[in-house]
């Protein structure tokens, strides 16, 4: 029996782009905090290229140095890339999902802190989606 190899990649198709999609996410999305991340997600019924698209933002108002902002964005993307398999796509009927991760802490966090917040956020999204599907 062949073992299925998991690929931990983050392709360009998995990045959220386009002002219309981003504006829709921020206007209609559901938000919660998984400190130091604020998470906004929106479930779509229509099928798109990727099951899940993400957006990572670190406000200049909170982190002044560009090098620190870029490091935080790299840590968030890496944490998502390694933990995205936690989200159980096959168990639900939704077609695609957009997620925005916004950093809300005023200083730089280390990787274990961001990874713990990411794991909590992804499990929270999965739980909320399953609840809404059962409620309908």
Please describe what this structure looks like.
- The chain has 136 residues and is α+β, with helices and mostly antiparallel strands.
- It contains three helices and four strands.
- The chain is globular, with a radius of gyration of 15 Å.
- It has a four-stranded mixed β-sheet with strand order 1-2-4-3, sandwiched between helices.
- The longest helix has 25 residues, at 111-135.
- The model is unreliable at 1-5 (pLDDT under 50).
Give the distance, in angstroms, between the N- and C-terminal Cα atoms: 39 Å
* Tally of helical runs: 3
3D shape = globular
Query: How many DSSP-defined strands?
Result: 4
Major sheet strand order: 1-2-4-3
The helix-and-strand class reads alpha+beta
State the order of secondary-structure elements, H for helix, E for strand.
Answer: HEEEHEH
Give me some keywords for this one:
single chain; 136 residues; alpha+beta; four-stranded mixed β-sheet; 3 helices; 20% strand; globular; disordered N terminus
Topology overview:
Blueprint: H1 19-28, E1 30-34, E2 37-44, E3 52-57, H2 66-83, E4 96-103, H3 111-135
Parallel strand pairs: 3-4
Antiparallel strand pairs: 1-2, 2-4
Structure, briefly:
This protein has three helices and four strands; from the N terminus they run H-E-E-E-H-E-H.
């Amino acid at each position: 029996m062949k073992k299925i190899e998991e690929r931990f990649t983050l392709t360009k198709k998995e990045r959220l782009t386009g002002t219309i999609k981003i504006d829709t996410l921020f206007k209609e999305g559901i938000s919660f905090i998984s400190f130091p991340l604020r998470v906004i997600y929106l479930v779509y019924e229509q099928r798109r290229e990727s099951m899940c698209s993400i957006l990572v933002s670190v406000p200049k108002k909170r982190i002044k140095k560009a090098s620190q902002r870029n490091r935080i964005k790299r840590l968030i993307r890496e944490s998502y890339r390694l933990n995205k398999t936690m989200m159980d796509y096959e168990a639900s009927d939704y077609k695609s999902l957009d997620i925005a991760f916004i950093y809300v802490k005023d200083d730089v966090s280390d990787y274990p802190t961001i990874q713990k917040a990411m794991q909590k956020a992804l499990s929270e999204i999965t739980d909320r989606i399953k609840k809404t599907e059962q409620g309908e």
